[in-house]
Each structure stands twice: as C-alpha cells, then as structure tokens.
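Replying to the earlier thread about multi-chain prediction with a worked example.

Input:
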Amino acid sequence: MEYTQMPKVELHLHLDCSLSYDVVYQLNPTITQEEYEKAFIAPPKCTDLADYITRALSGVQLMQTKEQLRLVTLDLFKQLKADNVLYAEIRFAPLIHLEKGLTPEEVVATVNEAMSLGIKQTGVKAGLILCTLRHFTASQSMQTVTLVDRFKDTNIVGFDIAADEAGFPIDNHVKAFNYAKTHHIKCTAHAGEAKGTESVWETITNFNPLRIGHGVRSYEDEKLITFLKERDIHLEICPTSNIQTNVYQEIKGHKIHEIYNTEVSLSINTDARTISNTTLAKEYQELENNFNWTKAHFLKCNLEAIRHAFTTEEVKNEIRQKLIHAYQE
Ligand SMILES: [Zn+2]
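Result:
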C-alpha cells in the first residue's frame, strides 16, 4: 500500500544527515545534483558504519552559521511534513558546528528557535536530542550533556551518544551519562549496530538509556532480549541504514521481524534521510515487501514510538488518537 499519507512517528533522525538537494543548493549553488548525490548520499552498501558516517561531513560543513543551521532545520521540517510525520525527535551534535566561531550555546539556541518556527509552519510536533560522539573527550561529552540541562523546558528533550562504537570505547562518556541520570535527563544511546550484543549490554549497564539506537544485534542474545523487555527499553530500528552499514547483508536477512515477534518495544526510523536516501514511507514499503508487514504492524510500532517519546503525556495522547484513527480505518 501507499504509506506517504499514513501518519507516523520518528524517533531516530540525524539533522546533519538529512539535507535535501534544495537546501544544499541554497547554501552552495555551485554544488550540482550529481555532486550532491556522490557526497551526501551513501551507496546501498558501505564498508561499515565508519564509511557510512563520512557522508555526514558534507552536511556538517554546510551547517556552521546561524543562517545555515536555520535553513537546514526548516528544510527537514518540510521533509517531515511531506512524509506525514506527526511527531519527530531530531538529533545532532552541537559541538561539531563551531568551525565559524559560533559558541555551543548559540548553535543550540539557533536550532531550537528554528525548530519552534518549523513546528509552527508545518504542524509537525518535534523534540531535539543533543548527541555526544564516541570519539569525543570526557569534557566534550560533559559540555554536551550540560547543554541539555541549560536548555530544559525548550524543544531540547534528551541526550544521546552517536558515531563509531567499534572504533571508540565508552570510557570518556560514563561521567556525562551519570550527570544525565542525576539531572533527570532522558537518554537514548547508539549501540548494537557496528558491534554486537556486548556493546548493547555495556551501554545499558553504564549509560542507563530508556531507548537504544538500532540495538538490532540484541537478537543474538536471548538473555538480552528478556532484559530489554523487563526494563521496557525501546529499540529505534533503521532498516535501510543497517543494510548500508553492513549489519546485515540484505534487507531479507534483517532481524526486525523476529525482534518484533519477541515483543521487544521497537519503532521504524530513517536514521538519515539523505545518507540513506529514504523516507519512512519507503521504509514501511520495504517491510511490507520483505516481511508482509501490514497496517497492524505499523500501528503497533508507531504506538510504541510515541509511548517512548521524550514528550508530555498530553502530546502522546493527541498523537495516539490520530494514529489509531488512521490505521484502524
Ligand atoms: Zn543514528
């Protein structure tokens, strides 16, 4: 079926990996469509996660001034609206946007204000998650988590750790996640993507996240699946991205259907609308084509997503009603 018009919730989406050609052209008119496709979009198969992430650098380079950050944020809201996303959590790492002299506070304030405008213009509800990165120092990680605290009661709703889990250990970041815990900051964390179940265990034990970004390799450990269910830890699954980064050889081999059947809470996400050259509508279509997923599966995933969203009960109830209404028709 056609999923574009179906309402959706997205929890795992990187701002700097989702620039449309329209906004890239606006920011740098010398970039041709062909160059854009080469530099911003990853091929269907990358060597690994580290290879996939190199495409993010093109986006980050164009997001170094207030005006650039504003335009990229508004561009993403347009894309979300076109994909009929009702509620989205967008994430980015503010500390990689300081190259032209902005302070971390200015970066976050700029994206926060642009989000308020995007929400107003499109009606898409949204929250912003600030990411530390695996290769960051302990002090950069602390700086990022304290920014979440400083911007509480704005569009900023949580803290995440992203980037290459296989290349860098957790050590530098334990203190930041402890800070998040004592300051009641909601957390998610990338794990079980480039590394296996040991990385998910390590992340859960040391970072206490409410959700895991990807976490798909959890399926390899029955005890871990049981633990995720007991603690009601939600998996933000991004099917196409997982094939590109070589977690699985092809979509047919993805374990999402098996994970769904274990009743672990999960949602469907794009991860990176540009790098993965995808939308939620496309992801849903892939799942229908390969696993015979139906509206019932997508309703369940969307309800789980909104239940685990970092937002108010009021917003959750409103979105829930709209989802049930649309999918049960
Ligand atoms: Zn991600």
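The beta strands are 8-14, 85-92, 125-133, 156-162, 188-191, 211-214, 234-237, 266-268.

Feel free to reuse this layout for your own posts.
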